[in-house]
Design goal:
elongated, 122 residues, single chain, mainly alpha
């Protein structure tokens, strides 16, 4: 017969909430394209970010403290120095800059994910 459908069934939005999954897959693909050295130091950076990822952490402050970010970078560099002797002996200054940039990028991604999770819908 000519039965009316509810509004939500007439205009379904099957992929409306799929954006996060697509972004995550794209980000993981881009990380897989990193050259050898960044690919080898990425786990140390992710480990340091995991260690600092907790409720009310300073990394989620509106303006994170630059000294604390530098200390995070220093801890990641120390872990790299202990585990990856070949990488760290090449050029310490450039490697530290690379670690710092990669750390800031990882923190940016995690801050965006955190904001997205805690977004309130009224």
């Amino acid at each position: 017969m000519n039965q009316k459908l509810p509004y939500y069934m007439v205009y379904p939005m099957p992929l409306a909430f799929d954006d996060e999954r697509i972004e995550r897959m794209d980000f993981e693909y881009m990380k897989s394209l990193y050259p050898d050295i960044p690919k080898r130091i990425l786990p140390y950076i992710e480990e340091e970010c995991d260690r600092m990822e907790y409720e009310n952490s300073m990394v989620y402050d509106e303006y994170p403290d630059k000294l604390q970010l530098r200390l995070m970078c220093g801890r990641a560099c120390q872990n790299i120095e202990k585990s990856e002797k070949g990488i760290y002996e090449e050029d310490m200054g450039k490697l530290r800059d690379l670690v710092e940039v990669m750390l800031y990028q990882e923190l940016y991604k995690r801050r965006c994910d955190n904001r997205r999770r805690h977004r309130r819908i009224y």
